[in-house]
Amino acid sequence: MTFNNDKAIYMQMADRLCDEILSGKYADDERIPSVREYAVLLEVNTNTAVKAFDALAREEIIYNKRGLGYFVTKGAKKQIMKTRKKEFLEQTLPELFRSMKLLDIDIKDVEEAWQKA
């Protein structure tokens, strides 16, 4: 995984795991890779992976079964979607609209690009 400087690495890892849940790679109550496995997969320090898993556990996206590992919380996909939609509407769209105004991009231009995508 290629990390960027916009966000802490552990948060980027948490986002990636959320992306994997959204894509259906991990379903409700399904086991996810261990902290060590995920750290090795993404080539990061185990402590960084621990921080990512702890953050997701606090948000109740994943939960720990003692001795068995981490699992996806039931309803996690809906929760992630709800959070991400809110962030998109409150943060991404206003910035997009500002850029569209500055660049004189019309909604029809966006519709055409959407159709091509």
What is the gyration radius calculated from CA atoms?
17 Å
Largest sheet: 2 strands, antiparallel
Strand order, biggest sheet? 1-2
Mean pLDDT: 95
The arrangement of helices and strands along the chain is HHHEEHH
Structural class estimated from helices and strands: mainly alpha
Q: What fraction of the residues are assigned to beta strands by DSSP?
A: 5-15%
Q: What is the share of helical residues?
A: 55-70%
Which blocks of ≥5 consecutive residues have pLDDT under 50?
Answer: none
What is the number of E strands? 2
Kindly report how far apart the N and C termini lie: 24 Å
Form type:
elongated
- The tally of helices reads 5
